Amino acid sequence: MPTAALVCRVELSPPLAHVTVKGRIDPHTTPELRRSVLGTLAAEPDAVLIDLAGVTGTEPIALTAFVPLARAAAAWPGADLVHHSASPALARELEDLAIGRHVPLAADRAAAEALAAGRSRPVQVRWEIPEGPDALSGARDVVRMLCAREGLSALAEHAELVVMELVVNALEHGVGPRTALASVHRRRLHLAVRDHSPAMPRLGGAAGTEAGSGGRGLVIVEAFTTAWGATPTPDGKIVWCTLGG
Question: With a threshold of 0.90, does the pTM exceed it?
Answer without folding.
Answer: no
